[in-house]
Write a structure and sequence with these properties.
2 copies of one chain form a homodimer. With 111 residues, the first copy, chain A, is of the alpha+beta class.
């Protein structure tokens, strides 16, 4: 079967579901410049709750887009970093984010 | 204020939320080749429920991405069509869909 996001049984569908999600798109973009700690991500993604950020990062980690590294320091330091796959996913997501920023004035609801 | 999807108060955030959504991305892509009736969209978007499709189309219509036209026929014909804005939004969304289809084999969860 060719990969087809329109097919309900295609694993692409799950992947599109993961990436085509506001918080995933913002979290991956926030990691483009290098690793960040949880608190730094939370500050960058204005308005996200700690719970939603935790769930978002766990999903990205499970799908191989982000790694989570724990440093044995006091206080404990936990850093999140893009994998090569996560880095590659940033291009289409950045395209979507910049399209929205450039076209926001055309949306009737934003008036 | 410059438009910034990372700012909680920016209207871009709502728009990213609308577009960065699996069903919106699939519905807009399905309309790229021309107008479609509700039933045709439902067939194309395998696995979507009528309720979710109705809500998705209504949101896209409210945000000026899709028009809904009712033809006084028996049975009633209702067609959905992309607006120029909706057509422009298809480019970044197609980028995301094709990236997922091309890279699905790299995802551990899809193994």
């Amino acid at each position: 079967m060719p990969d087809d996001v329109y097919a309900a049984c295609c694993p692409c569908r799950d992947m599109l579901d993961l990436l085509a999600n506001k918080w995933s798109a913002l979290a991956l973009g926030a990691l483009e410049d290098g690793p960040r700690r949880f608190g730094s991500l939370r500050t960058r993604l204005q308005g996200i709750s700690p719970k939603v950020l935790t769930v978002t990062l766990r999903k990205l980690e499970e799908h191989g887009l982000v790694t989570r590294e724990v440093f044995a320091e006091v206080p404990l330091r936990v850093e999140y970093e893009l994998t090569p796959l996560g880095r590659d996913a940033c291009a289409p997501l950045a395209h979507l984010r910049t399209w929205v920023e450039s076209n926001i004035h055309r949306f009737p609801a934003a008036a």
